[in-house]
Amino acid sequence: MSANHPTKKPEINAANYPAVHTFLRGYFHEDVADEYGTTVEAADQFCDDADSDERLAVAREWAQLAELFPGDPGGMNGALKKLGSACRLSEEDLRQVSEIFGRYLAAKPQRRVANH
User: Fold this and answer.
1) Radius of gyration in angstroms for the set of CA atoms belonging to the chain, rounded to a whole number
2) What residues of the chain score a pLDDT lower than 50?
């Protein structure tokens, strides 16, 4: 990739994706099968365990990563590995985990507006 690339992708590192990094280290580790069954179940468990701010931060960063690797599960897995994942996700697993996090991006909190 040349330094003059017009749309510079953010570097894949823990500093740029801190929430996903923390999530991956805590849930997509070597014992994921023993602890959760599957990566999809691990993502569900994270959503149960995390508070709304943590879920939203991971959902946003996951979506940003997914946008960098559309239709490229190998690229997405490489990025996840750099960020601390010990798991290799199938294309279907990636889709399902993206859907889980996507629910939190779609469900923006409704602010009450006073009627005048």
Assistant:
1) 16
2) 1-6, 116
From CA 7, how far away is CA 112, in angstroms rounded?
38
88 phi-psi bin (left φ>0, alpha ψ -120 to 50, beta other):
beta
Q: What is the pTM of this model?
A: 0.84
Six-digit token string for 101: 């996090």
On whether residue 115 sits in a domain, the answer given is: no
Domain of residue 49 covers 18-104
Cα→Cα distances 59→5, 70, 99, 112, 115, Å: 27, 16, 10, 24, 32
Q: What is the rounded CA–CA span in Å between residue 79 and residue 14?
A: 11
Give dist(CA 23, CA 94) in Å, integer.
Answer: 15
